[in-house]
Amino acid sequence: MTQPISSGSDWSFELIEEYDRQIARIAADFGLDTYPNQIEVISAEQMMDAYSSVGMPVGYHHWSFGKQFMATQKGYRRGQMGLAYEIVINSNPCIAYLMEENTMMMQALVIAHASYGHNSFFKNNYLFRSWTDASSIIDYLMFARNYVAECEERYGVEEVEAILDSCHALMNQGVDRYKRPAPISAEEERRRQKEREEYRQQQVNDLWRTIPEMGGNDGDEARQRRFPAEPQENLLYFIEKNAPLLETWQRELVRIVRKIAQYFYPQRQTQVMNEGWASFWHYTIVHRMYEEGLVDDGFMLEFLQNHTAVIYQPPFDSPYYSGLNPYTLGFSIYMDLKRMCENPTEEDRAWFPDIAGSDWQQTLDFAMRNFKDESFILQYLSPKVMRDLKLFAIADEEGDDAYEIKAIHDDRGYRRVREKLARQYNLSYRDPNIQVWNVNTRGDRSLLLRHTRVDGIPMADDDTQEVLKHVHRLWGFDVVLESVDNGEVMERYRMPPEGGSHNSAA
Amino acid sequence: MGMSHVVDRRLNGKNKSAVNRNRFLRRYRKHIKKAVSEAVHNRSITDMEQGEQVSIPNEDIQEPVFHHGAGGNREMVHPGNKEFVAGDRLPKPPGGEGGGSGEGQASDQGEGMDEFVFQITQEEFLNFLFDDLELPFLVRKKLKSADSYQYVHAGFTTDGTPAKLNVVRSLRKAYARRISLAGKRRRRIRELEQQIAALEAQPDSDDPAFSKGRQIEALREERDELKRQVKRIPWIDEIDLRYRQHRREPKPSTSAVMFCLMDVSGSMTQVHKDIAKRFFILLYLFLQKNYKRIEVVFIRHHTAAKEVDEEEFFYSRETGGTIVSSALKLMHRIIEERYPPDDWNIYAAQASDGDNWNDDSPICRRLLQEKILPLVQYYSYVEITPHEHQALWEEYEAVQASFPDRFAMQQLSDASEIYPVFRKLFEPKTA
Do B71 and A457 touch (CB under 8 A)? Predict the structure, then answer.
């Protein structure tokens, strides 16, 4: 008969190592493929630090991280908010933080959740594989931090802050959604940064060369030629490469924010899948430990209490409701996939003929690797989960004086609910679709952005105007954003506002 | 397995966010200054030893991003359906865009969501206050330093830092230890050498059992071992070390009394009084760092003077003419009755708009020169007015000429001009 590893709530480094050994063994049994782990025990204060630098273990300095820190600190001191008990970094080795205040059970839960759950997701999900380079992110962040500090020294904190503020405002428009970028490599960055400094400015100058091209009949053609030739979705990339007046160091700052945005982009696209996966595995691994007698009843009781809190979903009419809980949704889908593999019903066979009765480990592994939230939900959200969560779709149409329930968790509604929910997780539906449309290269150098409305949804006026100030700061000349519905311009925002001065760049 | 590396990070990288926090405070210094200013207005002058809560309207610290606005057509999925069926229609709440349309931006519950509220520390609070007063860096440091203690010599101890090592004491200990450890052995060595010499002097026996060769050898072995032991006695050992010991003791626990004198005639506006308040605060902070016990006496005057509490001093309004000497006389009487100068260090700070009944100013000069200044450590006067000086200022100039070390005066229109009045007080003292 196996003895439980420990009893009571106190932890020690020896115990953490022993739990980790057992969890690693069980995770390997289940076929989880992970990066090596680095498990760091930190204080609550340090957790707040980590929390407020948006999960970057090394961050450049910026007031907004200070603001985040102060908000976290206040919430924590007042006891309004527990700290996130897990922060995990997509790096190799995979860094996870354990808070010293945690009980032994919590440390074990976090190890299973973060160091094996999230870790295997980072290593194997296709978005992370193709968009991030876990082995070089820490180096890159170091490079970024030093570069920013150097700029601050040379050009002043306020100058640097201004550029970073503007870049942060455009972070969500600073990613390539479709094109795969070269992976970030710090060493490469450093080597090429000098090179860029020399050539980049020259390329920009080429674009803005005002000398007419040689040859006779290209005048009209050139006037009509668009720049960029195709609309571009990555505003920060476009600015980095083409903004006429930016200094070289300012372009490098734009690039840094853009690279970091790109690094985090997969996390934004896989929140449900990733949290669901980690929760599924802490649940599964700890249950296996209990079956093996490695943890006792007290441990299990505390574990289940925490697990239940994590995956609690308040109903839409609860005062605590703030949207679907990604832990709940993801966990429910993976659990139901496993159930369909092991105990399929008639309904499962009809809806998921390939999954019902298949090997659950292989099925879950495939689901984890090859999807993002949107496609994952579309592919795997089962009628049973929709019933369990009592999902319903409600329409809010302009000009209608009532909301309308469009579909609920019944035979008539499953497909619609699933489709609508999947779409909700599509970032290009969530974030406004904004593209660089045209630049007046021969005239006033103004930049034209285009927002394409989906379902007639407009931009928020106030913030759009505010963000345009930032675009204007980076671009240096007039900026116009047109909000377009079915080819018709519905709204036009300008910076400087209509009648304002022309060239405010200085 | 065995791939994990567990690290204890608790001791390093503490306070990583300090820089970012300072960046935040710097960026919003205007808001914080305002909060500090209000706190100064609302607090007692003896209550500067804590931080302050600052709130900033959320819209001022928002980081804008492109996002959707209200309008258009949306269809969202929510959990927890109870009785809805497809086709149900629910009237929208009147007054435009109701809930259910946004995406995760609804923060309709929780308190004070319109304000970003945070706490600044006492040190940060004082920094902003000192910014206001444009205090030189050295002075700030002096006022903020928490220790109003001094270290006194308190004998010797067996552990301490190398800087506190007492060489003479340590060597004396080492010498004593060497004697006590080596003495017995040295004596024995001398005995052994005598025995060896005696044996060597005797003729050897034929009986191998009594052969002196082996005896001598045994004695020599013992002697050499003892010599080795003596050699191994360290010249100085850790247990010999003696360190000077210091004990923290409160600085001489003398007492000070601070007189706040203020003209409250109708011409002193609340703005004047708020500037005056900072003037009194600065003196108070100075005294607090130098004296263990401080009493504050508030004297307000118009044509007559009155001892009042702080609240009444700063915030009740009076009208009428001004006779400054009434306050000086009252101060003098209070000193005589309650604060014998042998037991008390007396400081005074006077604020006025310079207005005085003309015949009274020479009386003030005489009172100060003859009765008050001989009793006090320091007397500071500020005149809060943008106008021409009147008779009082000129008389006070005469006072300053006769007591340059303990009388200081300054005209000011802004809190940042207060400090020069105290410059003498904050000058580094050469012991």
Answer: yes
| Domain residue limits at A403 | 337-428
| Nearest CB neighbour to B75, from listed A43, A49, A420 | A420
Q: Please name the residue ranges forming H helices in A270-359.
A: 271-291, 297-310, 326-342, 346-351
Please tell me whether residues A43 and A97 are part of one structural domain: yes
A24 and A116 belong to one structural domain:
yes
**Same-domain status, A295 and A375:** no
Contact A285, B47 (CB under 8 A): no
For chain B, the straight-line distance linking the first and the last C-alpha, in angstroms and rounded, comes to 68
Tell me, yes or no, whether A346 lies in a domain: yes
Let me know if residue A37 belongs to a domain.
Answer: yes
Task: Let me know whether A360 and A289 are in one domain.
Answer: no
Q: Does residue A311 form part of some domain? A: no
In terms of CA atoms, which chain B residue is nearest residue A463? B64
Of B66, B69, B90, the CB nearest to A403: B90
Chain A stretch 358-387, residues whose beta carbon is closer than 8 A to a beta carbon of chain B:
none
Q: Are A106 and A31 found together in one domain?
A: yes
Whether A18 and A120 share a structural domain: yes
Token pair of B53, please? Answer: 């809560």
Strand B344-352 to strand B255-263: parallel, antiparallel, or no bridges (unpaired)? parallel
Nearest residue to B408 via CA among B304, B267, B283, B268:
B283
Same domain, A348 and A399: yes
- A323 in a domain, yes or no? no
A417 to chain B: which residues are within 8 Å by CB?
A: 77
**Inter-chain contact A21–B1, Cβ cutoff 8 Å?**
yes
> CB of A323 within 8 Å of any CB in chain B?
yes
pLDDT digits (tens, 9 = 90+) for A163-176: 999 999 999 999 98
If contacts are CB pairs under 8 Å, which of residues 200-239 in chain A contact chain B? Answer: none
pLDDT digits (tens, 9 = 90+) for A285-309: 999 999 999 999 999 999 999 999 9
Residues A399, B76 contacting (CB under 8 angstroms): no
What's the rounded Cα separation, in Å, for the pair B229 and B239?
18
- In this prediction, the residues of chain B whose per-residue pLDDT falls under 50 are 1-2, 97-112, 147-148, 253, 430-431
Same domain flag for A380 and A424 = yes
Task: Report the helix count and the strand count for chain A, using DSSP H and E.
Answer: 22, 9
Chain B residues in contact with A333 by the CB 8 A cut-off are: none
The answer to whether A240 touches A254, Cβ cutoff 8 Å, is: yes
pTM: 0.75
Of A305, A327, A360, the residue that ends a domain is A305
Q: How many residues does chain B have?
A: 431
- Cα A506 to Cα A472: distance, rounded to the nearest angstrom: 12
Between A373-380 and A271-291, two packed helices, what is the crossing angle to 10 degrees? Answer: 60
Which tokens sit at A409?
A: 């968790």
CB-CB neighbors (< 8 A) of A171 in chain B: 65
Percent of residues in chain A assigned helix, strand, coil, to nearest 5? 55, 10, 35
Q: Which of B6, B16, B21 sits opposite A17 (nearest CB)?
A: B6
Q: What is the pLDDT of residues B2-19, one digit of tens each?
A: 479 999 988 876 677 888
E strands, A70-165, are 88-89, 94-99
Residue A260 and residue A292 in contact, taking contact as beta carbons nearer than 8 Å: no
Give A431's Cβ-side CA count (13 Å radius). Answer: 20
| Preceding amide of B362 cis, omega within 30 | no
Contacts of A421 (CB under 8 A, 6+ apart): A324, A377, A381, A391, A393, B77
- Decide: A307 and A321 in contact? Cβ < 8 Å: no
B187 touches chain A (CB under 8 A): no
State how far the Cα of B380 lies from the Cα of B403, in Å rounded to an integer: 11
- Provide, as residue numbers in chain A, all residues whose Cβ is less than 8 Å from the Cβ of B27: 63, 161
Tally of structural domains, chain A: 2
